[in-house]
Specification:
The complex is a heterodimer. By secondary structure, chain A is an alpha/beta fold. Helices cover 13% and strands 25% of the residues of chain A. Chain B is globular. Classes of the chains: A alpha/beta, B mainly beta. The A-B interface holds A 51-59, 103-106, 108-109, 135-137, 146, 154, 156 and B 113-114, 136-138, 140, 156-158, 177-180, 182, 198-200, 222, 242-246.
């Protein structure tokens, strides 16, 4: 038995064949499917903005490995894609990210846990790092982002962790606690991987949607 | 151990502090929203300008003026001596986060964290004079030159912009910083612009041609505040522990010409504000405590 869930295209095809999605004007089934998918993709909401904060430093390197052997903190992989509101990859995008170390301290002298990444041909980026620590004056773990691309509005935002004790196991309810996160969507689910022969690590996916300038 | 060679007690935590022109009084806006004046020699609280809680915090602009915000993001400028409200400046679409008054009292600079421009206003008419394009991170600090002809903004995106206040012309953009400058001040003689912040260094710029003259290194902490002596020969820097404002930090007195450290003292918490007395003999400091610390300036 096949338990694979149908993808969006298969669902739409099924709806068309059952007469649940019908063209209001004369349109072929293929044309209807494409038009529907394009309209859905075109309505991707721009990622919510947050403030830059005092700890941003210009001049980080384009390096995807921020974690050194022996670094304190749980290994974390951050992946994601940078797209426009039509869901398309953006040419020339730059993803700057920075966060506190396991003890909640930002590197103000060097560039530890700071990167300025160029996404690949699919618009994807990834970094190997550690889970940011808590610091007293900002109790929710977070990663700062500054994303820029020609022809698009520069976005300043932050990614949060759904597993953070700050959200008390219920980010759906507590996402706005103390006004820390600008939007519920910025609190990301955390996947845990326990691969054979490699240490366990956490992973978050943060896709970023930029608006046209 | 007392914090300071002398300590003036306050009923609430004082933020920014100013000496009166004759040096006899200290004025501060406090975290309960009220503004207070103390006699420096006796440490006695002289006056208390009470404000309504719903009016939010007040920002002290100089020894005689303060600002607060109305519900429409308007910036209200108040005269401390008369309790009179001078002007309300309307134009910000989001809550202003930084306000500064020029030394001649004629100009107000303001910015909001969510906007990427600086507004320059005519303080007497309340009219907006210039809308100046600034960086994307929000203004960390403003500095007016002593003649009020020049305005500097330091932005959290690390860049510094310098404008002529009459024309609104951008005369220089400094893009070489790799950390935000949390504090910026012109020397009283107008010759130097000093800035310091995240990267623990004091940058000394020539205020004529905007060339970097020297860097003072050795504070050893992120720098939250600085003040320059009335004779323009000394600078004092106050620290900022990046984990929490509650950790102790240092206060360092520097000779500007030689770059030598003249004195180092401790602050129990992140330094909020520093001010030299007009006679140059004392530095007043606030640091998230219900007191004002007074440090003797080394001879």
């Amino acid at each position: 038995m096949n338990h694979r869930l149908p993808n969006r295209r298969e669902i739409l095809e099924s709806c068309i064949s059952r007469g649940l999605l019908i063209a209001g004007v004369s349109m072929s089934q293929t044309g209807l499917l494409e038009a529907w998918q394009q309209t859905e993709a075109a309505s991707r909401k721009p990622t919510s903005a947050e403030v830059l904060g005092p700890f941003y430093r210009k001049g980080a390197s384009n390096t995807p490995v921020l974690r050194a052997p022996g670094d304190a903190g749980f290994p974390l992989k951050v992946i994601g894609q940078v797209v426009n509101t039509k869901g398309q990859r953006i040419e020339g995008a730059k993803v700057e990210l920075w966060h506190a170390d396991h003890h909640g301290r930002y590197d103000t002298r060097g560039y530890k846990y700071r990167a300025a990444l160029t996404p690949d041909a699919q618009g994807s980026y990834s970094v190997d790092t550690v889970m940011p620590g808590h610091y007293a004056d900002r109790p929710a773990q977070h990663i700062h982002y500054l994303i820029s691309a020609p022809g698009h509005k520069t976005l300043i935002t932050q990614a949060y962790f759904a597993t953070d004790p700050f959200f008390e196991g219920n980010p759906e309810k507590n996402w706005n606690k103390r006004g820390i996160a600008a939007n519920k969507e910025l609190i990301l689910p955390v996947k845990l991987f326990e691969g054979v022969g490699e240490p366990p690590h956490a992973e978050i996916r943060f896709d970023i949607v930029l608006e046209n300038a | 151990m007392p914090n300071g060679d002398r300590t003036i007690n306050a009923p609430a935590i004082p933020y920014r502090i100013e000496f009166s022109r004759d040096g006899r009084h200290l004025i501060a806006a406090c975290n309960d929203g009220h503004l207070r004046t103390w006699d420096v020699s006796s440490g006695k609280l002289l006056t208390e300008r009470s404000r309504k809680k719903e009016d939010g915090p007040a920002a002290l602009l100089d020894a005689r003026h303060y600002a607060d915000l109305d519900a429409q993001n308007g910036i209200r400028i108040w005269d401390l001596s008369s309790d009179a409200q001078a002007r309300t400046l309307y134009g910000h679409a989001s809550r202003p986060s930084r306000v500064a008054l020029s030394p001649d009292g004629q100009l107000v600079a303001s910015a909001s964290e969510k906007e990427t421009s600086v507004r320059l206003w005519n303080a007497s008419t309340g009219q907006q004079k210039h809308l100046l394009a600034d960086g994307i991170g929000g203004v960390a600090e403003f500095a007016f030159s002593p003649d009020s002809e020049t305005l500097v903004s330091t932005n959290y995106d690390n860049d510094i912009r310098i404008w002529k206040t009459r024309s609104g012309e951008l005369v220089r953009k400094i893009e070489s910083m790799t950390g935000a400058m949390f504090s910026a001040e012109f020397s009283p003689d107008g010759k130097l612009l000093l800035m310091a912040g995240l990267d623990e260094t004091v940058y000394v710029y020539d205020a004529k041609n905007w060339s970097l003259l020297k860097q003072l290194k050795g504070h050893g902490e992120t720098i939250a505040a600085l003040a320059i002596s009335p004779d323009s020969r000394m600078v004092v820097t106050g620290g900022f522990d990046v984990i929490t404002v509650r950790n102790p930090v240092k206060v360092v007195f520097w000779d500007l010409a030689s770059g030598k450290v003249l004195r180092t003292v401790n602050s129990p918490h992140r330094v909020v504000a520093l001010a030299f007395s007009p006679d140059g003999r004392w530095v007043a400091m606030t640091a998230n405590e219900k007191e004002i610390s007074l440090w003797q300036v080394p001879a």
